[in-house]
């Protein structure tokens, strides 16, 4: 779909027309977050799966292409995200992960392809349009203001008012209930300045802000980067809780241990091409690393032909470059 041109089969519609007005309440209520029945997964008691979730992807990208001048960054990329699941988006530096996320979030318009939301084609040409659908992106830099407290950061740009003044009690109550619904108990007072929070606590605030606004898809860009072991575990547990409560979650990570700990599906990008999107239980660490570094692993990935781009050379090190079990976590992002 060229920007500004309707899809031949079914015309794209503006975001506001794609969803009814009732689809835009002020926030996602704690009752919505906690109303799911859960059953254990196969890989351990710590993994859960919501019952009765729709198999229809909330986000369905088909044949997405994106170029910057003569440089083609995304080549016919297809990608889906389903409610109640964590989809890990993996790939080497320069594979196109950030560009794909920015296309999903409305920062970059797509050149061609189909963008479907709940099975209906929409045109998302701005971050505001993406937010109206329920898409929230937690970037690696978190975009938090250190001089403001937790409540002020969670409502920044979306402040509630009572007449001409800010409704501080209502915002504080909503911030507390949202953090409580996510079982976040490490931040203490919601009036603490962000400057006093640890890295893991800041990540928690950024994620809570993302689910405050009736989010249906949350994209997390390297949420555990630069965190210690304990803080990383807290963040991963929070990521899993988001999916367990019915949200679609996209996790970008270079750390294969983190990916396999929380993900239901793994999508691998290689030089701007989506080479595989498979259930996490169907692949191993080694296969995912092969998909990331060479674009194929056995029957998965790109076909073996003359058009397949060669894998970039990689220096050998004493540790795994992609965090195999018991080894180092991988290259810097």
Provide the descriptors you would attach to this structure in a database record.
single chain, 333 residues, alpha/beta, Rossmann fold, 6-stranded mixed sheet, 4-stranded antiparallel sheet, 10 helices, 16 strands, 27% helix, globular, disordered C terminus
In brief:
The protein is an alpha/beta fold.
Describe the 3D structure.
With 333 residues, this protein is of the alpha/beta class. The protein has a domain at 15-142 and 210-301: P-loop containing nucleotide triphosphate hydrolases (Rossmann fold, 3-Layer(aba) Sandwich). It contains 10 helices and 16 strands. The protein has helices spanning 15-18, 30-34, 97-104, 127-133, 150-154, 168-181, 199-211, 229-244, 256-262, 285-294, and strands at 38-41, 44-50, 59-68, 71-81, 86-91, 112-117, 120-121, 135-138, 161-162, 165-166, 217-221, 248-252, 265-270, 273-279, 296-297, 300-301. The strands form 5 sheets. The protein has a 6-stranded mixed β-sheet with strand order 8-11-12-5-13-14, with helices on both faces. The protein has a 4-stranded antiparallel β-sheet with strand order 4-3-6-7, with helices on one face. Helix 8 (229-244) links the parallel strand 11 and strand 12 (248-252). The chain is globular. Mean pLDDT is 79; it is low at 1-11, 15-53, 313-321 and 324-333.
